[in-house]
Write the structure tokens for this entry.
Amino acid sequence: MNCHNELSYCKKGMRITAVFMCALLLIQLLLPAAALAASKGVTTDKVVLRKSASTSATVLQSVPKGETVSILSTSGSWYKVRYGNFTGFMMKKYVKASSSSSSGSSSSSGSSSSNAEKIRALGDPPGPMRIGDKNSDVKKLQKALDILGYYNGKIDSDYGKGTTAAVKAYQKDHRLSADGVAGRATVKSIFGSCAKLSKNPALNGSSSSSSSSGSSSSSGSKKNTVDSISEIGSAPSPTRKGSTGKNVIKLQQALECLGYYNGEIDGDYGSGTVAAVKRFQQKRGLKADGIAGKVTIGILFGTSSGSSSSSSSSSSSSETKKYKTETLSWFKDDVTHVIPKGARFTIKDVATGRTFEAVRWAGYNHIDAEPRTASDTKAMKSIYGGSWSWRRRPILILYRGHVYAASMNGMPHGTSTISSNNFAGHFCIHFKDSKTHGTSKVDSEHQNAVNKASKYAWK
């Protein structure tokens, strides 16, 4: 090779190298931007997270509707995502990718934060609202529903048909009265609490279609509003139409918390209170007579009535009868809605009789739960003899006046949402016919434990 040819060859090589380096640099610049543009997404339906991009791949986790995932890459009709401690693949059609994260420095933290954290970042919770309202509270509601995957319309502060439809869809999924009205129960379900007053003056006044008949209470009666049933204290005594006083106030407060009552909390058991009690009774399969008797109060407050006319022995007898153990089929009885996400309940181990409180955070084929506090974790660990174990144990679950037969394992694993309970993950609770995460099969050991638990009563 002569010098001229050698020099020409070298120049060509340098040009090729330069082109390659430019292309590589361009790819490096574009890839992060593409990844950032779709760095997060919200599940639009219940979806399975799989080990690889195939419907026959191993199931890693079942993810509920409205959960936030971090989108890592794309593979055909699949997204590679990160969900909690899991990394796997989801079908694109079940994930609403968001490009909003590409603007501003908040995108990286937003993609890893939970929906609850994003909603808390919206500021103080709004008050009740309904169709026709147009204010900043409506804007906040629209943003929250957008985060949860229920609303994809314009964030315009106008409570119109689109917002109403989104609220209805949310209410239906969370076993609330699907009327499209963002009342106190709906707002509290979304934001964790509800402002005492609404920006709509009509929702703060005494005139309401749900108010007690003949009530002309002062405008200050709304001061009796509470944010949760636990704030009310002990359960009231039985009451009925015509009753007045503190017991009726407690009843009205509880019904308002659950979204059945929107009248004045004035201690006057009028037609509005009767109608609210009837709606509650119908929802719970009780005789809809509008009378707040012992059974209705027991289910409403998750405890026995505080009636002073009953002796302690008769109260105990009533309690045993009320707590008849029920065996629910996970899919047929739609247990995932009977005990919804965020529900707080008490677990009793049938072998030791020990109890602790737990909170449901997720789960599609069964309940994924966490001990509520560090003390509850300690109590749960003592049930397993001081060491965590996958061993199935028969348990009873007490929730809103009902007792259900179930089975739990005692091994912390996967995602954890409560940082202060000293429990590194969650544990699984199975019901009749429920399935496992990984194999999506009915586990015989869990089923045997459920069957055993069904023969016990809460005492």
